[in-house]
Amino acid sequence: MDPVIILVEPQLGENIGMAARAMANFGVTDLRLVRPRDGWPSEKARNAASRADHVIGKTLKFETVEEAVADLDFVYATTARQRDMLKTVRHPVEAAQILRTTVNTGGKVGIMFGRERWGLNNDEVALANEILTLPVDPDFSSLNIAQAVLIICYEWRMSGSDREAALPFETPDVPRASKEDMVRLFDHFEEALDEVGFFRPPEKRQHMVQNLRTILQKGDWAEQEVRTLRGVVAALQRRHERSRQ
Amino acid sequence: MDPVIILVEPQLGENIGMAARAMANFGVTDLRLVRPRDGWPSEKARNAASRADHVIGKTLKFETVEEAVADLDFVYATTARQRDMLKTVRHPVEAAQILRTTVNTGGKVGIMFGRERWGLNNDEVALANEILTLPVDPDFSSLNIAQAVLIICYEWRMSGSDREAALPFETPDVPRASKEDMVRLFDHFEEALDEVGFFRPPEKRQHMVQNLRTILQKGDWAEQEVRTLRGVVAALQRRHERSRQ
């Protein structure tokens, strides 16, 4: 059970579609509209949703906010400005955790978003359990609806899974080079550099070797990467041998 | 010092403007464009930025990705699909923390975003230190550029509230190698390896170069360490020249 996203009197079909797409990006699919200005269904919305048809297709339209939230147990009102109400104000991270806990205990939850121009009115905010606001720059706080929906659905998704598991793909899982591999790489490098008289003067050799080993150590390389590097050194060495003959 | 946002070959001015607005929402203001299709400056971008003129006004345009990242010390490549590279893949939360730590130790950081249609190519990804991807629904993973920028700038802003625990002692504070230093190291290595015919067969060269750059990238080396490595390559090269005579 994911949260229901409620857009109150959205004006532009494009914004409804972009909100639907933002929801779909993070696996949220229940969209409700209260008195969309240009009516519903909307071609502009479907186009802007760019293939989030599974969201657009089951979007519900309501005449009042009260009806739109009637079956929900816990609702957030999103707002960018402070209201003269004694309501708890939450950051998206905390809000997502509270919604997750409510859902996990059998509750049905929703998040209300207001009009493009001036958001939700105080009567609508008053219907919500708590207020949700975003940590925007106070000097540039106007987010469009789709972007507010995006961030909140992103936090919802994160609250549900450990982060790595939520990623579409992960760092390739390849065996790390062992210290033995690394020491072979060190020896190989140092042999090649001795051949070309790199470590001069001799009394500096130990310190130069320590530096080089520190540098090579930083790579935290995979086995196959260390093999590649040894191939590099070998290639440069073979050239010497060839050219010596 | 906030991260630099780099858009590679953005097609639509609207997307550039929406990205600028998303940056401004979270206090990020340095935008760089590589070969924007419709040129720069762009009226469409300025309109879509809806008053994020402080971002649009100082946006820089570059001809190549290498130039766009030359002065940066640590760069993320954002991508929605897995690449055949042994690069570390980070979630936005971890990436923001890594960027914050780098900035706090004097590093200059950036985040690259690809084209609307097909993102960054592998050569561009190979230039980055690590890969950044978003925890989207694998069945609906296409985010537009502005929304990817929005979420990452949001996490950047959130990472600022974290405090680093005081350590008994710290990593020596030495200047990190810039991307320019790294690209010189890449070129130097590849030149030396071309001399010895390492990149065979020719059609494999590009992929071998990408692997080698990925390997060298992992060191996160200081300027002086990259100088040492170039000395290593030069020593091995000089030997060839001498022995060729």
Automatic annotation (TrEMBL), chains A, B:
Subcellular location: Cytoplasm
Cellular component terms per the entry's GO annotation: cytosol
This protein's UniProt keywords: Cytoplasm, Methyltransferase, S-adenosyl-L-methionine, Transferase, tRNA processing
Reactions catalysed according to its record: uridine(32) in tRNA + S-adenosyl-L-methionine = 2'-O-methyluridine(32) in tRNA + S-adenosyl-L-homocysteine + H(+); cytidine(32) in tRNA + S-adenosyl-L-methionine = 2'-O-methylcytidine(32) in tRNA + S-adenosyl-L-homocysteine + H(+)
Record's keyword annotation contains Methyltransferase: yes
Molecular function via GO: RNA binding; tRNA (cytidine(32)-2'-O)-methyltransferase activity; tRNA (cytidine(32)/uridine(32)-2'-O)-methyltransferase activity
EC number: 2.1.1.200
Enzyme class: transferase
A GO biological-process term: tRNA nucleoside ribose methylation
InterPro entries: Alpha/beta_knot_MTases, RNA_MeTrfase_TrmJ/LasT, SpoU_MeTrfase, tRNA_m1G_MTases_N
Gene3D superfamilies: 1.10.8.590, 3.40.1280.10
Cited PANTHER family: TRNA/RRNA METHYLTRANSFERASE, TRNA_RRNA METHYLTRANSFERASE SPOU TYPE DOMAIN-CONTAINING PROTEIN
Family: Belongs to the class IV-like SAM-binding methyltransferase superfamily. RNA methyltransferase TrmH family.
Subunit comment: Homodimer.
Name used for this protein in its record: tRNA (cytidine/uridine-2'-O-)-methyltransferase TrmJ
Species this chain originates from: Cohaesibacter marisflavi
